[in-house]
Specification:
The complex is a heterotetramer of chains A (628), B (291), C (402) and D (234). Chain B has 291 residues and is mostly helical. Chain B has 11 helices and 4 strands; from the N terminus they run ααααβββααααβααα. Chain B has a single domain, classed as ABC transporter involved in vitamin B12 uptake, BtuC (Orthogonal Bundle). Chains in contact: A-B, A-C, A-D, B-C, B-D. Chains A and C meet through α4, α11, β2, α14 and α16 of A and α1, α2, β2, α3 and α4 of C.
Chain lengths: 628, 291, 402, 234
């Protein structure tokens, strides 16, 4: 899709503002912390502790790089040992065999690691497999790399490789003194932290966090989950390789176990988790506390029996994780309260602007002509037929009701339209274009937006951020901001814009679902039971909202059990039963259809429905007009 | 390479796989019932293995019997670990669980190093000397006994889960602990007993292993990783899948080692694992809850 | 916030004594550091090494120390990790200002330590790693009084040739694929080729393999009757069990700590050990006349006879002692430069050593030209391990090829 | 009194959801709790059944203080909670679900209880060996109620039994519940469909912002201005 590739290229906001935002950020503070360590090490400590500081910065860097995929995207990688090793071996091989600068090997290592990451991530991310599958695949990668390298003669096999000691200087990444190592590693840390901060302030920050918080909602917001995860994983892997190249030169010797062993990832996880993942400061603080502590324990408890220091270290570790579940950074955050770094400011404009809601590629069909056509669409799960065969068309500008008993296949049908999974048979086209088999974000970008029966929210987002993120794919920051403002005003969530998504009441969550769908700029809106569980008054509000959306030209398909609302709202109704259409037509026709009554409505409800359509103000026929 | 060699590798790998299954089933059950992926699983097994060594040395029992003797002790250890460490992290983020159990693994490993030193221990047994010969193929008796014991234990577990009221309760707890509570199932007690029994079963597995293998303070990690691979390959929460995965892994391990004859051979095993997982992300039997 | 400040202060206070460079002890004591892996996957080596060092220091001090001054060797744990080794080396050279470092490290750790020592300009005296590659790198500060893979290979092939005089020999190689095993076997292979001896099979396995039937079967099906085998204790135990199950009884010539482990008879059926004539190329055997003082002290202290690991660091401490004494006798300060000079001059006759070496004398690469192996064989129902080769140090004849 | 709640305060995290709720129910009574979303209806039931700890106030069942009891203890006293969204054990068969439901019942009563439930919901008997996950929403709701009855309860609390169900199924559901009501079972009902709730219950409480705003007989509430405006949309 063209719009997909556009996401990457666009400049976000004025450079000056961006720079200021980065400088005031967590990443800048973390980088500052790194340089404080450098200053302390160089002015106050002896060579040994400077050496410890260098290794500490290596680990700090590794944790920060891992945190991008593990903390921000929420995909736990056990494979970073492999990327570390790839960096180390590339740099070692090129420099010892061809006399090339280790920097060259480092760059090659970055490339190779990124390619490796893309290869390992390809299938689990493409097919949306579980986190655990990804984690175990990366673990397998780590072991495969460890044993794989062990058998390669050119890489020294299990004997390892020695760096040449002849040359020194920046080009050889080898120094007589210790301090240049410290400076180089601090510089690597700084660059990485600032690059990550810039990325997090950009659209990717929102995309990654949304992906982590809720994949289904992120995909429905038009985010390409596959690209989002692959990008983060590749960046994280490439960054990790740099540390490997540095380590090889610093220690002067590498062997498979030392750079590819499991202890690499165990250390990374340890420092990151104790520090606190998903924040830039967490892994830095975690490393700065734990690494020296481990070193002190090793040295202080050396005279005791072998293994004592690890025992004490292990017990301390277990205690910290049990007592401080949010990590050290969680404690700090609570202590600082409101003085914690504000999230990157969104400044979504207030006010119900008269501007119309955004529209993607307004479907090029005439009012009343079919915008969406489903032909003999079916879907099986394993051996179970969820949807037998559905023929259905949605006409532009109408509100179509989709009703039927539970298990009739209504939500399955929505999932097919929204791209959650492909149909097993049949075809779906939107304004003449085939859409079956597309991914959710592609459907969203073509103008199909949906809500979920069970509301899906982004736990770490405010209401405004969630709507902004849905507006973001394929648009600039400014456009997305303006859209978010308009949509919030339209669905009546303006007053709640800065509240965390998780704190909304049920009816507000339903509105947020609709807002998120609207922000993507749909021409076809799929509403899945947005009224279930709402009080009649709230239902009335939703009915009014849906009507106003239709008035703007958005075509709506609605699955609903609240019969009086369906009867009142819909222009046309399609009834599904056992995975097939059993009736369709105008509301009053459908509500009198004996098959529909038999399969779905029941006698009493049918009376209510009939009463509602005929406008008879029976006690159940509360029409919204009476309320005004 | 001769067919005979491959056959020998396959047979001994298959028997080994049975013992892997017993180890992995305990992990799968704990993961299923309380959602905790225990990275210290292999280290708990290692405690059992040291226990078997001690019991055998003190009483002269065969390792298999010593394993049975160790069951109550391992259950007690399971109890303590559950109350102190596992219960607090039921329902926490996977990363926290991973890290805490990795921390526990650290502690167990270091403690073993302190108490037993880095030397290896085993239980020499007469059984190893008298294998069964089927033509050119040799079946190691301890391995065979281990396999049979593992099979019986797994069968008992399957029967318990699918045919007893407490088995239903365990499965109900695994699926929806809150609802199980509302049904009057004492969920915490179920979780505790599952962990205690799973840890206890490791004593049996330890007995089977010590029939032909040895223990050092670092063997825990390899069994943890192995069980993780099996549980995921089997399809999370699919016990029968785990059984199949364990047998497949045992055979694959022996075959790759026989075929490749290089330091890189184990890499082939992990590549195979990756490929299998990609082709069958829902577990080998395709019934697990991988997505 | 307060809690944090307190924690931070606490941390700084805890670190304070470590950060300041301690003034060098002006006392009588000569303090030299040693590095080894006391924890981690190679801890078994380090733990034995430490025991050997302890006894060496006791013996040296009982005999009058270093020119009357007591010797102290502090052992530092490196976990066998190159990264940690570098850190520890940094600490020892920059903070402790050690003039020389005794190394009882595994190969990987030794490699990292040698690289560091070369840069830092501090002599590193290796007494455990057998890597020949390190000696070929032209280091100025690296000395190894240990045998090398080359001398091991030579001894093994000599012994195989001795067996060939008794009948037809079909040799096969079996090895664990770490540098220790693979490195030596590689040299054995080259040497056999040089002498025109054909190998029937070569099978390797990983230390973590739980199932050694496949590689052992591979060797068996090749028709070999002599197996040259390099490995660690755990895999040698597993491999012997596999051989027993496969009813495979070759003449085993082992290399390294595994086949030579003194506890093998406790771990494997004794009859089978005898049946395969289990013998090992080693740099130590407790039955050697000249090792008796060490062996007795060790047995008293630890209840078992010392392993080769323990012996090598005992020996290392004596090499160190010689260098220290040479420096002090020349009226020189204990500086890295002076100690390097002293090491070059060291020449200890074989009779004073607990190893089967002819002497300890370094060539220009830091190689000990007097290093040589012995071959020890389990005898009398695997109740004793007897030195059987080379004839100069042999206590009994080797078992004949059967 | 079958159930008497006094000045109950409870909530999650730092937030109180219920600010002093008092409710009384007599043996055999059917009482509904209605109110807008977020008012605390589900929290009320979750507090009574021990899933949420009460912060103050008392909950008495059959005259016995049950605050502080574990959630798995309360069904043993005969007070069973059927939570929102059914929560059947999808990987267990229908019958296994019912057997798990009998965990709180006195030993030996399982067979009779099973027969009674199959009698009340014949569909469950037909599908006894099928996996509960394969049932339709309505069938699952029936299973959820049946499972609660397996505990031989003296009182059940139903949370939104009609949520997400097709109208025909809701009707069938309430027919079955009607049978229970007539058998004298004490029922506390939380229901979004206010018509349905007031039809079914004899009395109702209106819960707003964690407080009881109004209480009375169903018939009276149906004509109450506030109720008509806010909930009936009239």
């Amino acid at each position: 899709m063209k719009s997909t590739s556009e996401i990457a290229a666009r400049p976000e906001h004025a450079p000056a503002g961006a720079i200021a935002a980065v400088l005031r950020s967590e990443g800048a503070v973390a980088a500052l912390l790194v340089w404080v360590v450098v200053a302390i090490a160089l002015t106050m400590l002896n060579g040994y502790w400077v050496s410890v500081a260098v290794m500490m910065l290596v680990w700090c860097y590794l944790c920060t790089a891992w945190n991008l995929i593990g903390g921000y995207v929420g995909q736990i990688s056990f494979g970073h040992g492999a990327f570390f090793g790839v960096g180390a071996y590339c740099s070692a091989y090129l420099s010892t065999t061809y006399g090339a600068s280790p920097w060259l090997g480092m760059i090659l290592g970055m490339g190779l690691s990124a390619v490796l990451a893309l290869a390992v991530g390809y299938i689990p991310f493409r097919r949306g497999l579980s986190h655990l599958v990804f984690a175990l695949l990366t673990l397998a990668l780590a072991y495969a790399a460890l044993y794989g390298v062990s058998g390669v003669r050119a890489l020294g096999g299990t004997n390892g490789m020695f760096m040449s000691l002849d040359e020194t200087g920046l080009a050889a990444l080898r120094f007589r003194d210790l301090w240049p190592y410290l400076i180089v590693m601090a510089a690597f840390n700084t660059v990485l932290l600032l690059v990550l901060q810039v990325l997090l302030n950009s659209r990717y920050g929102f995309i990654w966090r949304a992906t982590r918080d809720n994949e289904a909602a992120a995909a429905a917001s038009g985010i390409n989950l596959f690209r989002s995860k692959q990008l983060a994983f590749a960046i994280s892997a490439a960054a990790t390789a740099v540390a490997g190249g540095f380590y090889a030169q610093f220690v002067g010797f590498i062997d498979p176990h030392s750079v590819l062993g499991v202890h690499v990832i165990i250390q990374i996880l340890l420092f990151s988790v104790v520090g606190g993942t998903g924040t830039l400061l967490g892994p830095v603080v975690g490393t700065f506390v734990l690494f020296p502590l481990g070193e002190i324990m090793r040295v202080q408890l050396m005279s005791l029996e072998a293994g004592s220091h690890q025992l004490v270290y292990g017990v301390a570790l277990v205690a910290v994780i049990l007592l401080l579940p949010g990590g050290l950074i969680g404690v700090l955050r609570r202590a600082m309260g409101g003085r914690w770094f504000p999230a990157f400011s969104l400044a979504v404009p207030h006010g119900a602007s008269a501007e119309p809601l955004p529209r993607r590629r307004a479907a090029e069909v005439e009012e009343g002509a079919p915008i969406l056509i489903a032909e003999a669409v079916g879907r099986d799960f394993g051996g179970v037929v969820a949807l037998r065969s559905v023929d259905l068309e949605v006409r532009r500008g109408e509100i179509l009701g989709l009703i039927g008993p539970n298990g009739a296949g209504k939500t399955t049908f929505f999932n097919l339209l929204g791209g959650s999974f492909p149909p097993s048979r049949g075809r779906i086209s939107l304004a003449g274009q085939r859409v079956d088999g597309l991914a959710p974000h592609e459907c969203t970008q073509l103008g199909i937006a949906r809500t979920f029966q069970i509301t899906q929210t982004f736990a770490s987002f405010t209401v405004a951020e969630a709507v902004f993120t849905a507006a973001l794919p394929g648009r600039t920051f400014a456009e997305a901001r303006s859209i978010a403002g308009r949509v919030l005003a339209r669905v009546g969530l303006e007053a709640r814009r800065d509240v965390a998504c998780a704190e909304l009441t049920l009816s507000e969550q339903r509105r947020l679902e609709i807002a998120r769908a609207l922000a993507t700029g749909p021409s076809l809106l799929l509403l899945d039971e947005v009224m279930a569980g709402l009080t009649p008054t709230e239902v009335t509000g939703v009915i009014a909202l849906v009507r106003s959306l239709r008035a703007e030209g958005i075509t709506v398909v609605i699955i609903e059990h609240v019969m009086h609302a369906v009867m009142e709202l819909c222009d046309r109704i399609v009834v599904l039963d056992a995975g097939a259409v059993i009736a369709q037509g105008l509301p009053h026709e459908v509500s009198r259809d004996p098959r529909v009554i038999e399969a779905y409505l029941g006698k009493r409800a049918q009376q209510f429905a009939a009463a509602a359509t005929s406008g008879d103000a029976d006690r159940h026929g509360g029409s919204p007009n009476d309320d005004v | 390479m001769s067919l005979e060699l491959l056959l020998q590798a396959a047979v001994s790998g298959f028997l080994m796989g049975g013992i892997y299954a017993l180890i992995a089933l305990a992990l799968a059950l704990v993961f299923g019932v309380m959602g905790v992926l225990n990275f210290a699983h292999g280290d708990l097994l290692m405690i059992g293995m040291y226990g078997v060594v001690l019991v055998s040395a003190a009483t002269g029992l065969s390792p298999f019997l010593a394993g049975i003797v160790m069951v109550p002790a391992m259950m007690a250890i399971g109890w303590v670990v559950f109350v102190l460490l596992i219960r607090p992290i039921v329902g926490s983020a996977p990363l926290v669980q991973a890290q805490l159990t990795i921390g526990l693994s650290f502690v167990i490993q270091s403690a073993a190093l302190l108490w037993f030193g880095a030397d290896l221990f085993n239980v020499p047994s007469e059984l190893a000397a008298s294998p069964i010969r089927l033509g050119a193929i040799v079946i190691s008796l301890p391995l065979l006994i281990g396999f049979v014991v593992a099979l019986v234990a797994s069968g008992l577990l399957a029967w318990f889960l699918s045919a007893t009221v407490w088995g239903y309760r365990v499965r109900a707890t695994a699926e929806d602990p809150v609802m199980a509570q509302l049904c009057g199932v004492p969920v915490q007690r179920v979780q505790r007993w599952v962990f205690v029994c799973a840890t206890g079963s490791l004593a049996i597995a330890a007995g089977c292993l010590m029939g032909f293998y040895h223990v050092t303070p670092v063997v825990g990690l390899q069994f943890s990783v192995l069980s993780l691979l099996i549980v995921v390959l089997g399809g999370l929460g699919d016990l029968r899948g785990a059984m199949v995965a364990a047998l497949v892994l045992g055979v694959a391990e022996a075959l790759t080692s026989a075929i490749f004859n290089s330091a890189s051979a184990p890499a082939a095993l992990y590549v195979l694992f990756g490929a299998a997982l990609l082709l069958k992300p829902h577990g080998l039997l395709g019934r697990g809850a991988a997505v | 916030m307060n809690r944090f400040v307190q924690a931070a202060i606490g941390l700084v206070v805890a670190m304070a004594p470590l950060m300041s460079s301690p003034a060098r002890a002006e006392g009588e004591e000569v303090a030299i550091p040693a590095i080894t892996a006391m924890s981690g996957s190679t801890a078994v080596l380090g733990q034995d090494a430490q025991k050997g060092i302890e006894i060496a220091v006791e013996h040296i001090n009982a005999d009058g120390g270093i020119n009357g001054r007591p010797l102290k060797i502090q052992v530092y744990d490196t976990q066998g990790e190159p990264g940690v080794v570098r850190q520890v080396m940094e600490r020892l050279t920059r903070m402790e200002r050690a003039p020389i470092i005794l190394g009882c490290e595994v190969s990987a750790g030794t490699s990292a330590a040698a690289q560091f020592a070369e840069q830092a300009g501090v002599p590193y005296l290796n007494s455990s790693a057998v890597s020949a590659e390190l000696l070929e790198r032209g280091y100025k500060w690296y000395f190894s009084d240990q045998i090398t893979a080359d001398s091991e290979a030579a001894t093994v092939v000599d012994f195989v040739e001795h067996l060939m005089t008794q009948g037809e020999v079909v040799p096969a190689l079996l090895y664990e694929d770490s540098p220790r095993g693979a490195g030596t076997i590689e040299r054995v292979e080259a040497l056999l080729k040089d002498r025109g001896i054909e190998i029937a099979a070569s099978a390797s396995y990983s230390r973590s393999d739980r199932n050694l039937l496949p590689p052992v079967k591979r060797v068996q099906t090749s028709g070999a009757n002599v197996v040259i085998w390099a490995g660690y204790t755990e895999d040698v135990v597993a491999g012997l069990q596999a051989m027993q199950q496969l009813d495979f009884k070759p003449y085993i010539v082992g290399i390294g700590g595994g086949p030579g482990d003194v506890r093998i008879p406790q771990l494997v059926d004794k009859g089978f050990i005898e049946a395969v004539n289990l013998s090992t190329a080693d740099y130590f055997n407790p039955d050697m006349e000249r090792a008796q003082r060490f062996v007795k002290s060790y047995e008293e202290r630890h209840g078992i006879v010392p392993s080769s690991y323990a012996s090598m660091c005992y020996r290392g401490a004596y090499t160190l002692k010689a260098a220290l004494e040479k420096t002090l006798e020349a009226g020189k300060e204990l500086t890295p430069e002076n100690l390097r000079g002293a090491l070059i001059e060291v020449d200890i006759p074989g009779e004073q050593l607990i190893s089967p070496f002819s002497r300890i004398k370094f060539d220009e690469h830091g190689r000990n030209i007097g290093a040589q192996n012995l071959i020890a064989q389990w005898k009398d129902g695997a109740t004793k391990k007897v030195t059987v080769w080379p004839p100069e140090v042999a206590v009994e004849e080797p078992n004949p090829l059967n | 009194m079958k159930l008497s709640i006094e000045a109950l305060v409870s909530g999650y995290g730092l937030v109180d959801v219920l600010h002093g709720v008092s409710i009384e129910m007599a043996e055999g009574e059917v009482v509904a709790v209605i109110g807008p979303n977020g008012a605390g209806k589900s929290t009320l039931l979750r507090t009574i059944s021990g899933l949420v700890a009460a912060r103050s106030g008392t909950v008495r069942y059959d005259g016995r203080e049950i605050g502080g009891l574990a959630a798995s203890e309360i069904p043993r006293l005969g007070l069973v909670h059927v939570p929102e969204a059914r929560h059947v054990f999808g990987k267990l068969t229908v019958e296994q679900n019912l057997v798990v439901g009998a965990s709180a019942a006195p030993a030996g009563s399982r067979k009779d209880a099973l027969a009674e439930v199959y009698d009340l919901f014949p569909m469950l008997g037909q599908k006894a060996r099928e996996l509960a996950g394969g049932l339709s929403g309505g069938q699952q709701q029936m299973l959820a109620v049946g499972r609660a009855l397996m505990a031989r309860p003296g009182m059940i609390m139903l949370d939104e039994p009609s949520l997400g169900l097709a109208p025909l199924v809701v009707e069938q559901m309430y027919e079955a519940l009607d049978g229970l009501r007539r058998s004298g079972l004490t029922i506390l009902l939380v229901e979004q469909d206010v018509y349905m709730a007031l039809d079914f219950a004899s009395r109702a409480y209106v819960l707003e912002n964690g407080r009881i705003a109004l209480a009375g007989a169903s018939a009276a509430l149906r004509h109450d201005d506030h109720v008509r405006r806010s909930y009936l949309g009239i």
